[in-house]
Amino acid sequence: MNDTIEIRWHGRGGQGAKTAALLLADVAFNTGSYVQGFPEYGPERMGAPITAYNRISKKPVRVHSNIYSPRYVVVVDDSLLDSVDVTAGLAKDGAIVINTEKGKEEMVKGLGGYKGKVYTVDAKKISLEALGRYFPNTPLLAAVVKVAGIMEKETFLKEMQASFRHKFANKPEVIAGNMKALEMAFEEVR
Amino acid sequence: MAKRDRLSGNEAVAVALRQINPDVFPAFPITPSTEIPQYFASFVANGQVDTEFITVESEHSSMSAAIGASAAGTRALTATSSCGLAYMWEELYIAASNRLPIVLALVNRALSGPININCDHSDAMGARDSGWIQIYAENNQEAYDNMVQAFRISEHKSVRLPIMICQDGFITSHAVENIELLEDEDVKAFVGEYKPENYLLNPKCPLAVGPYAVTDYYMEAKRSQAEGMRYVETAVLETAGDFARLSGREYGLFEAYRLEDADYAVVMIGSAAGTAKDAVDELRADGEKAGLLKLRLYRPFPAEAIAEALKHVKTVAIMDRAESYNNHGGPLGADVMAALYRAGSRVLAVNYIYGLGGRDVRVESIKEVFAALKQIASDGRAGEAYRYLGIRE
């Protein structure tokens, strides 16, 4: 399984973690990989913790289980750190990306001694600035693509432009803002 | 030319249906419906198909409308999941007994209660005796390919029975995976025009559909239905042969994965078979002779071929994603064990209930089953044959 990149998303219902996982599957697919993007459905309500997953591989993916030993974890909402063991099974040489307005040190303290790399990005600031509304999933998508080295920035932005044109065919006015959010997050994640 | 794409299982089936362009598609548009009619409704709205799409008030009505449309002489289908299938129950038998080649796109999910929306096979397994053909898929590609083949099997003139094309709820229905799509015109040509022999809207040959038959003819009618089932294996294999020439993808009654020289085998249906393949490969790398039999056609049940494929193994675990509440095991377990007995097999067999209500099945879970099979082989006795996998006691 070492040649498969496994990513786990933690979010809350309504924040778009599932959509982000599906978009990540999309962009990875466009680079020629075999992909899986799927949500784990729990109680269907706004605000409830939800999990979504990605597998990205050079070989066909046959396994259909959830992901227990991810290489990367993305946390869409830092309040989840209080209630969900987000680093469970996370590879020590992997990384976690957290959306937060707070400092990285504070996040590290909330991770129960996780030894791997910790990245943060303020998706709220970016989203409000680029889109005028709070959609954390777009900035986080860019952040994890960069952290996991899934593709180069230019290729990623080109792929996303095409993907947004398809996804937002009925509201093209939001494409520019989403592209800006991606660019900002790519630069600001650290 | 095949087109490389990535789609969820729901969208994959909807794309197959767009390419098939059936005549009539009645569907209940609300939960527990799936995204399949939702995607298809957009194809209707965009003028990509000329199907009569009827939104009805219940699944009982969607199957009733499909029966009416099919009896009239059209190519009809519907789609549902879970308790939606349960609500079609009465009509399922009417479709089958009238020998109507209706297709049902089924997304397998648990039945309540407790209330649960996730995958298991309780819905379809409950309908296994309704007279419908049942075909299952491991992944999105198979769900798509099976749907492309569905009408050819169902409308085969020696068969003329309705067919359920099943896939696992959420695990494949909502998961985006790579897929190879066929060209629209290739699918259209493969499926062909539907030319029913007997149908209601034929003034030259008036007929009654769904008549009353008591002790005089009921039993002969049911026997004739069973006769149709006898030709299904042939129709499935003929269709698969033509499909392989078109797509390069081979299908049979089941898939035998590293089974030829296996000492230990699992028999299963659906998406967990993909997970089991990884488990088999890991065990093989450790020198263990593990193998898998993944069933594609469950109704009718290819008993002889399964017994033949398993005749050399030392031990076998039959995996059921549904309970049967008979105190002995699940529906697949009963079918496989009966098949082994009739073939005079002495293989030591156990039956696991697993994955109910979406309980996750990991590579490790399947390896645990193989470890038990190895133990059984060394003990020389199966012990308790009715087991649960991954349960908290």
Summarize the structure.
With 190 residues, chain A is α/β, with parallel strands linked by helices. Chain A has helices spanning 17-30, 104-109, 123-131, 137-147, 153-167, 175-188, and strands at residues 4-12, 34-40, 49-57, 72-75, 95-99, 117-121. In chain A, helix 1 crosses helix 4.
Top keywords for this entry?
heterodimer; A: 190 residues; Pyruvate-ferredoxin Oxidoreductase, domain 3; six-stranded mixed beta sheet; 36% helix; B: 393 residues; Rossmann fold; 2 domains; five-stranded mixed beta sheet; 14 helices; 40% helix
Categorize the overall geometry of chain B: globular
CATH first level of chain A? Alpha Beta
Major beta-sheet overview of chain B: 6 strands, mixed
| Structural domain count of chain B | 2
The helical percent of chain A reads 25-40%
Largest interface: A-B, 21 and 26 residues
Account of the protein in words:
- The complex is a heterodimer of chains A (190) and B (393).
- With 190 residues, chain A is α/β, with parallel strands linked by helices.
- Chain A has helices at 17-30, 104-109, 123-131, 137-147, 153-167, 175-188; strands at residues 4-12, 34-40, 49-57, 72-75, 95-99, 117-121.
- A six-stranded mixed β-sheet of chain A has the order 2-3-1-4-5-6.
- In chain A, a hairpin with an 8-residue loop joins strand 2 (34-40) and strand 3.
- The longest helix of chain A has 15 residues, at 153-167.
- Chain A starts with a strand and ends with a helix.
- The relative contact order of chain A is 0.17.
- Chain B has two domains: 3-247, Rossmann fold; 254-388, Rossmann fold.
- Chain B has helices at residues 9-20, 35-45, 59-72, 83-87, 89-97, 122-126, 140-154, 184-191, 218-230, 232-247, 272-285, 303-309, 331-342, 363-379, and strands at 3-8, 24-27, 52-55, 77-81, 103-108, 133-136, 163-168, 176-181, 254-257, 264-269, 290-295, 297-299, 315-320, 348-353, 386-388.
- In chain B, helix 14 (363-379) links the parallel strand 14 (348-353) and strand 15 (386-388).
- The model of chain B has no long low-confidence stretch (mean pLDDT 97).
- Classes of the chains: A alpha/beta (190), B alpha/beta (393).
- Chain A binds chain B through residues 1, 22, 25-26, 29, 34-39, 41, 44, 60-66, 68, and chain B through 6, 117-118, 138-139, 168, 170-172, 174-178, 271-272, 274-275, 277-278, 358, 360-363, 365.
